[in-house]
Amino acid sequence: MDELTTAAPSCSIERPIMSTAPSLANLSALPEGVRVPTYARAGLSPGIVHIGLGNFHRAHQAWYLHRLMDRGLAQDWAILGAGVRAADAAARTKMLAQDCLTTLIALDPTGRSAEVTGSMIGYVPVADGNAPLIAAMTDPAIRIVSLTVTEGGYYKTGDGGFDADHPDMAHDAAHPDTPRSAFGAMVAALAARRARGTGPFTCQSCDNLQGNGDILRQTVVGLARLTDADLADWIDGACTFPNSMVDCIVPATGPSELALARDFGVDDAVPVTHEAFRQWVIEDRFCAGRPDWDLVGATFTDDVHAYEAMKIRILNGGHQVIANAGEIVGVPTIADCMAHPDIHALFRKVETEEIVPHVHAVPGMTPQSYVDLIDSRFSNPEIRDTTRRVAFDGSSRHTGFVLPVIRAGLAAGTPVAGLALVEALWARMCEGTREDGSTIDTNDPIWDDLQAAAKAARDDPQAWLDQPRLYGDLAQDAKFAPAFARWLRMIWADGTVAALRSYHGQG
After folding, report:
1. Res 354 pLDDT > 70
2. Quick count: other Cβ atoms within 10 Å of Cβ 252?
3. What are the record keywords, sorted (predicted)?
4. Alpha helices (H) along 209-316
5. Residues with Cβ within 8 Å of residue 49, at least 6 apart in sequence
C-alpha cells in the first residue's frame, strides 16, 4: 500500500502580521513557505465535473490532479465543482470568491505544511431542476463525472437494492428534465449526449462504499430504467463505473482550521486540514479516458475489492468501534479516544480478534500491519477529528462497515462479542445523553427513529434490534442478539467504562 506524505517537518508557526486571501492575483503574494501551483490556470480546460465538493474531495482527488498538473500533465482534465443542495450555493460563493483555490494544511506530528491547489477552475451554478449541472455534464469535453455524496446518498433499500420508491427517485422519474438528485441530473445529461451522438462519460464514485462503482451503476441505471429502458441499456453498456478505494482522514473545517490557515498567512474562507497520508486505488475502467493519477501515487488495479475491504472494515469500521464510546463518555476527538486506555483497548481487541480474520492481505500490507497503521493514524494528536463527526450517520456507517463483519463472523464461527458491544454502544449513544448528563444533538438522518428505539431499548434491548432496515435477521440471531442485550444492560447499569473493561479483561 502506498503512503504519500505531503507534510514537510517544521518547527513552531509564527503568526504573520497580515494574511492574504488566496486568489489567482494573490498567489505570488502568499508567504514563501506556502506551496502554490506551478501551472498556469489560464491554460487549463475542464474534463471532470465533481458533484459534492466537500473537504474530502478537495484534500484527495483534487490534490492528485493538482500534483499531476504540477508536472505539466492533465491540463485538459480540470475540475468543475457542482452541488445539488441549497447549501451548496453558499459554498459556491466562497469558492468563486477565491478563484476556486483551496488551501490544504497537512497535519503531522513531525510538522505542518500548507499548499494551495488549483485543479478546480469553476463551480456550476446551483439551481432548482439542475439545468446548469445538466448542461455542464452534456458538454463533450466532460469525460468523467465523479461524486462524493456520502455513504448513505445512493438510494439503497435495506437489502442493498435500488430504492425506486424513494421520493427523490419518484420525482426524478416523473420529471426527468428537471431532476432533484445528482443521479437524475446524470441520467438527463447522458440522455442528451446519446441523442447528440457525443458519447458517454465515466461515472466515478469516490465515497466510502465497498463496490462503490457497482452501487453507482445500480442507482444511475435503475433510475434511467424507470423512464426509458433503451436509455438504461445504453448507459449500462456504454458508460463505465470503476470501483475505487479512497483514504485520507479529513476533519471538518471550523474556527480553529480557519485560524490555522491564517497562521500560515493565508486568509482562506474554506481551508481544509488533513493527515499526511493519502491512498487511492482504482479500477482502470474509463470509457472516455482518464488522467494518469498513478504518476502521483494512485494505484490502478483489477483487484480493488481486497484493498477496499481492508480499508472499510479496519479503518471505517474501526472509527465506529470507538466513536460511540467516546461520545457517551464525552471524549471530544478521535485522537483523544485513542489516548483513553479503555477505548483504545476496545479498538485493539475488536480489530485483532473480530475484524482481521475477515480481511485479506494486499500487496505490501497484512491485515494486522494495517491495524497498526490505522492505530497510529487515529492517534495523531495533530488531527482534531471530532468524535461527533465520525459518529454521524451511524445508520449508514454501521450497516455498511460493522454489520457485514458481524455476519461474516457468525458465518465463520469467529468471535462477535466485541462487535455486539460496539452495537450496544451505538444504541446507548442514540438515546441522546452522555453519562455526564449533557445532550447529544441530532446526529443521524433518521435520528428521531433511532432515539425512540434507543429509549425503548433501555428497558428492552430487543427494541433496538427490531429495526428491520438496520439489522434484518440479525435481530433474532441466537449468538449476536443475547450478547447485544447483555452489553446494553451492563452499559446502562454499570457504565460504559465498566462494560469496556469487562470486554478487554481489565475489570
Report:
1. yes
2. 15
3. Oxidoreductase
4. 212-225, 229-238, 255-263, 304-310
5. 79, 80, 82, 124, 133, 136, 137, 142, 144, 145, 146
Residue 9: pLDDT band (50, 70, 90) is very low
Single-letter residue type at 254: G
pLDDT for 406-424, tens place per residue?
A: 999 999 999 999 999 999 9
Q: Could you tell me the residue range of the domain that residue 294 belongs to?
A: 27-302
Q: Which three cell numbers stand for residue 472?
A: 434484518
Residues 130 and 254 in one domain: yes
Q: Write phi, then psi, for 180 (nearest 5 degrees).
A: -95, -30
Domain identity same for 239 and 384: no
pTM of this structure = 0.86
Of 302, 330, 360, the residue at which a domain comes to its end is 302
C-alpha cell at 328: 457517551
Q: Which amino acid is at 450?
A: L
Instruction: Say how many C-beta atoms besides its own lie within 10 A of residue 318's C-beta.
Output: 27
Same domain, 32 and 87: yes
User: For residue 146, what is the domain's CATH number?
Assistant: 3.40.50.720
Contacts of 303 (CB under 8 A, 6+ apart): 362
Rg, Å, the chain Cα set: 23
Per DSSP, the three-state class of 266 is: strand
Is residue 136 within 8 Å of residue 124, measured between CB atoms?
Answer: yes
Contact yes or no for 416/367 (Cβ under 8 A): no
State the helix-helix crossing angle for 182-196 and 167-174, rounded to 10 degrees.
30
Q: Are residues 362 and 490 in the same domain?
A: yes
* 377 and 315 both lie in a single domain: yes
**One domain for residues 239 and 322:** no
Indicate if the pLDDT at residue 477 is higher than 90: yes
In a domain, 14, yes or no: no
Sheet holding 144-147, edge to edge: 120-123, 78-82, 46-51, 144-147, 202-205
Q: Which residue among 302, 320, 343 closes a domain?
A: 302
- 400 falls within a domain: yes
